[in-house]
Design brief:
mainly alpha, 0% strand
């Protein structure tokens, strides 16, 4: 099945929050053979992405200070401001970075499936697995984004619109109401995810795959056909992990 259009350059490789900001593997070693400035800046950016996710998830966006994020990343304030205009700018850059990773993983699962039904379920399963695997990112991107302001709400609206790509091959209904129907379904799935993340129950999201698959497919397949999703087992033998996240058992 064809995948939504994307290119490798559009997507980062590591989900923010999958590692700690002070991950020793990304320590910038001093010495005579100094790394190029662009490599240092890219490493600091990645560390700040991770640090921002963990700091915001722990303290809340309103209480997370730039100094807290810098400390968690092991990066100086001047280095932070060389990369970002401020906390909001850093949050939005981190959010975009993470959504790029998430959509790449979902696109891959969707493209590898034999038909729309299998692809939609696979993409949804990836979404739930990745959020459960990196709960700090789930809190930051799903719940704390509400505290950021109008720019963040615009980013979120654009993100939800991008999920329409996974309904392009869905069967009927067609017509002018199709777009509104897709928007309603995406909004309903998002609202359920929000409820679980906000309640501290993000680890339970993968188990919601049958119910959410039914909700997602019923308008397009019909209720009777979609009911099979409620009986489909959730395969937890190999959950999808975000890049650089530890494998869950």
């Amino acid at each position: 099945m064809a995948s939504p259009v994307s290119t490798a350059s559009d997507h980062p490789t590591s989900l923010p929050g999958a590692r700690t900001g002070r991950d020793p593997a990304r320590a910038i070693k001093r010495g005579p053979r100094r790394l190029p400035a662009e490599v240092i800046a890219a490493t600091q950016r990645e560390r700040l992405f991770d640090a921002l996710v963990h700091t915001v998830a722990e303290k809340g966006y309103a209480n997370a200070r730039v100094s807290d994020i810098c400390t968690a990343a092991g990066v100086t304030r001047p280095a932070f401001y060389a990369l970002f205009a401020g906390k909001e700018d850093a949050f939005l850059a981190t959010y975009r970075h993470g959504i790029g990773v998430l959509l790449r993983l979902m696109d891959q699962a969707y493209a590898e499936a034999p038909d729309w039904r299998a692809g939609a379920r696979a993409a949804l399963g990836v979404l739930l697995d990745v959020l459960a695997g990196v709960p700090a990112f789930a809190v930051m991107a799903v719940v704390e984004i509400d505290a950021v302001g109008p720019r963040a709400r615009t980013e979120r609206a654009e993100l939800l619109g991008r999920f329409a790509r996974f309904f392009a091959d869905a069967p009927h209904p067609a017509g002018p109401a199709r777009g509104e129907l897709v928007g309603a379904v995406v909004g309903g799935v998002y609202a359920t995810i929000y409820r679980y993340v906000d309640a501290g129950r993000v680890a339970e999201l993968p188990a919601r795959l049958p119910v959410l698959s039914y909700f997602m497919m019923a308008p397009f397949l019909g209720r009777a056909a979609a009911e099979a999703e409620l009986e489909a087992p959730v395969d937890r033998s190999a959950p999808v992990s975000a890049p650089c996240a530890e494998q869950r058992r």
